[in-house]
Design a protein that fits this description.
alpha+beta; Alpha-Beta Plaits; three-stranded mixed sheet
């Protein structure tokens, strides 16, 4: 719950506590109701801004009630984690953990550098996007397909979370110096 909703909730609670106390007092002493009516009527009639003030207070209460209603209907599912249920209980796996699994697998492929992974939740599965830079003279479709398969398998085996899709985005061709070991292996 956001801080604004919490502040509104406190104000709303104070107003309802006041209304409840007044209701109990009127229920105990019926003559008090006449006195309350008289004071409200005289204060409204004596000030030309009192109608505006009452309207503003009523609108505030109405808007805050609508906000609480909407907040109550909103689901509180955790958007940064995927839940898996076992016979013992619930296991939550953060999307950050899944990103790290994907990056770990992708970094083991020597033909892609400057890797970044982004994971988004789709119901009970995830969608993974891998961005990177490939080395020169690399067959991009072949490397991309291999990367997709390895990432999908590693995430599903390592976390138990289903992978809806793995998207590979090749941002550029690596133009930096390739270490001598890599040149000897690839060349």
């Amino acid at each position: 719950m956001s801080i604004l909703l919490r502040i509104l909730l406190v104000i709303y609670a104070v107003v309802f506590i006041f209304a409840a106390v007044m209701s109990v007092m009127v229920a105990i002493n019926n003559e008090m109701l006449g006195g309350i009516y008289y004071r409200l009527d005289s204060s409204i009639a004596s000030s030309r801004y009192s109608g505006l003030i009452i309207t503003v207070i009523a609108l505030f209460l109405l808007v805050s009630a609508i906000l609480f209603f909407i907040a109550g209907l909103r689901t509180t599912r955790d958007k940064r984690a995927v839940s898996k249920y076992t016979n013992i209980g619930e296991v939550k796996i953060s999307l950050n953990s899944i990103e790290n699994i994907a990056l770990n697998v992708a970094s083991k492929m020597g033909s892609i550098r400057d890797l970044k992974a982004y994971v988004s939740k789709i119901d009970d599965s995830v969608s993974i996007t891998i961005k990177g830079v490939v080395l020169p003279d690399v067959n991009i479709p072949l490397v991309s397909s291999e990367l997709q398969e390895k990432v999908k398998n590693a995430v599903e085996e390592g976390s138990g979370v289903g992978v809806a899709d793995v998207k590979v985005f090749i941002e550029d061709i690596y133009s930096g110096n390739i270490p001598m070991q890599k040149q000897n292996k690839e060349g």
